[in-house]
Design goal:
Strand content: 15-25%
Order of helices and strands: EHEHEHEHEHEHEHEHEHEHEEEHEEH
CATH class of the largest domain: Alpha Beta
Largest sheet: 8 strands, mixed
Number of helices: 12
Structural class: alpha/beta
CATH architecture of the largest domain: 3-Layer(aba) Sandwich
Number of domains: 2
Helix content: 25-40%
Strand order of the largest sheet: 3-2-1-4-5-6-14-15
CATH superfamily of the largest domain: NAD(P)-binding Rossmann-like Domain
CATH topology of the largest domain: Rossmann fold
């Protein structure tokens, strides 16, 4: 199979979908790998490393797409990039189509096989290809929150961990999944007082047992959210419904009740956001202020740590890529049933139930 690795085109997106080590594995399996010039530069992987691994360097995205059977990306293609795809090609990347009807329609019209990393789902409902990026985004969310709580960055000027005699910041995290648990660990490690809300008592109990001090756990009920949010210095949105838009847990009115200079980091923003006042931002312009509250809504948070993020992503995706390249998409789905749930669009139709429901 001919596998294409294009350079990511989104602003400040420095990740790449395959490392040189991964390319070596794919080439060793009898595949041809095309890498767009300087695709790995931002993550620290020079073209020479890909050549040494057996890849061919090509000059443009157009050349990659024109010649490849399987396109591996990190972020969803732009409209212009998607227009260049052809019928029957396999696109494997983060898609988040539940929040992007325009792209979903275009991919359906192009009749590509659109596989989304974020909807590959194991029998226990875990998401193996989303987990590494969720782990990074969770850790970054607390770091970014602490950064923007600084007065010179627009925040109230509060130190996450406080000092003896001075109270620490209160961090509220909505969701105790991969993003939320990693955000909690970092915020807790920085000395903050953490409130963690989730629908799963089992998750909350497990985390409370590990972190008995400075962690309050609550069921994610509307009355608890309404009570806690106005007391919050840093709010982290970490909810996920696979293949569907994030539920809006925090209303515009509730944001108005937050303290001036408090901070919201909505990690769910690429699925529409769980805070009504959230909107997507970029690493170049990461924040905006609404009603005195600083909002951070970067949709590709792991893109600012591209080397770690690329290595984590490829470690998770490579077994699936190898199987698709070895036996084709249908046989790969038979051998790895969780991969079938990754198929969002095929033969001109939206086939993932969650995406179907989200897009109507």
């Amino acid at each position: 199979m001919i596998i294409g690795i294009p350079r990511e085109s989104k602003p400040q997106e420095y990740r790449v979908s395959m490392t040189p080590d991964g390319v070596q594995v794919l080439v060793g399996g009898g595949n041809q790998v095309l890498v767009e010039r300087e695709a790995g530069r931002g993550a620290g992987f020079a073209d020479s490393l890909y050549v040494k691994a057996g890849a061919q360097i090509v000059s443009s995205y157009h050349d990659v797409v024109r010649r490849s059977d399987l396109i591996l990306k990190v972020k969803e293609p732009t409209f212009k990039e998607a227009e260049k795809l052809r019928e029957g090609q396999i696109l494997f990347t983060y898609l988040h189509l539940a929040a992007n009807l325009t792209l979903a329609r275009l991919l359906a019209r192009k009749k590509v096989v659109a596989l989304a990393y974020e909807t590959v789902e194991l029998p226990d409902h875990s998401l193996p290809l989303l987990k590494p990026m969720s782990s990074i985004a969770g850790r970054l969310s607390s770091q970014m929150g602490a950064h923007y709580l600084r007065h010179d960055k627009g925040g109230m000027g509060k130190l996450m961990g406080g000092i003896p005699g001075v109270a620490p910041a209160r961090v509220t995290i909505l969701g105790a999944g991969t993003v939320g648990s990693h955000a909690m660990e970092v915020a807790w490690g920085m000395g903050a007082e953490v409130v963690l809300l989730d629908l799963s008592e089992k998750k909350l109990l497990a985390l409370k047992q590990r972190f008995p001090a400075r962690l309050m756990t609550l069921l994610s009920a509307p009355e608890n959210i309404v009570r806690i949010i106005p007391q919050t210095d840093l709010l982290i949105g970490a909810v996920l419904v696979t293949g569907a838009p994030a539920p809006r847990l925090v209303s515009r009115g509730l944001v108005k009740q937050m303290k001036k200079g408090s901070v919201i980091v909505d990690v769910a923003v690429d699925q529409g956001g769980c805070v009504e006042t959230s909107r997507p931002t970029t690493h170049a312009s990461p924040i905006y202020t609404w009603h005195g509250v600083v909002h951070y809504g970067v949709t590709n948070m792991p893109g600012c740590v591209p080397q770690s993020a690329t290595e984590g992503l490829v470690h998770a995706t490579l077994p699936y890529v190898r199987e698709i390249a070895r036996s084709g998409i249908d046989s790969a789905c038979e051998k790895l049933p969780e991969l079938k749930k990754g198929i969002n669009i095929r033969e001109g139709e939206v086939v993932h139930p969650g995406v179907q429901q989200a897009l109507g």
